[in-house]
């Protein structure tokens, strides 16, 4: 037992310290780096990337990080310059580079975009640890296979939907919807609860299209979603875009859409 603990400690000791903004990024980095990276996540579980302020312990970890992987969440605009001031030697790596995106930051919920994000991570790790290039390349290829498998499973699940529109409080599935020819209708208006007039319009749309599921996130209010669900005899389903295992998370969405929208 002592020998095992020593080995685990040794592995951790010689891993590179990197930081990311949100938990899904940790999933990507750990898929490519395995035990060769200690990943410091800045936005802790249950918090919104729009309003979060890092804890002192997180800032201390950031001070020892070689890389910071950014992904375009609002939190970064307020903090990136402060991070550089804390650790002037940290290298910023943009995981959105080369991806056609809007102001909506949720690119990690599209499995094809994930391949590009993982490639950026792989290249950044090779840059600081070139002697293990083969290791990172191998892990990246495994990631690509898994992402393509998930993409195929999602396409299969969504192939026979009777209608392809769904309601969601926060528009986190924008890229997912675009990838799979779905229509996402967001309840919120600029991060705020919708007004009564818009709620009534949504209820009418949901009844016309026979929409029976409304996605909500634990980071946001569920008040309007529950009200609409009651009026359309639908169900409110919790979905967080910030879950660690991205593949399982987006497959869950596809399975729910298949369950509620195929009739």
What does this structure look like?
This protein has helices at residues 2-13, 23-33, 56-63, 74-86, 111-128, 133-158, 174-179, 196-209, 223-232, 246-261, and strands spanning 16-20, 37-41, 67-70, 91-94, 165-168, 183-186, 213-216, 235-238. Strand 3, helix 4 and strand 4 form a beta-alpha-beta unit. The chain starts with a helix and ends with a helix. By secondary structure, it is of the alpha/beta class. Strands 2-1-3-4 form a four-stranded parallel β-sheet. A four-stranded parallel β-sheet has the order 6-5-7-8, sandwiched between helices. The radius of gyration is 20 Å and the shape is globular. It folds into two domains: 13-155, Rossmann fold; 160-261, 3-Layer(aba) Sandwich (Rossmann fold). Residues 2-12 have low confidence and may be disordered. Helices cover 51% and strands 13% of the residues.
Blueprint (SSEs and pairs):
Blueprint: H1 2-13, E1 16-20, H2 23-33, E2 37-41, H3 56-63, E3 67-70, H4 74-86, E4 91-94, H5 111-128, H6 133-158, E5 165-168, H7 174-179, E6 183-186, H8 196-209, E7 213-216, H9 223-232, E8 235-238, H10 246-261
Parallel strand pairs: 1-2, 1-3, 3-4, 5-6, 5-7, 7-8
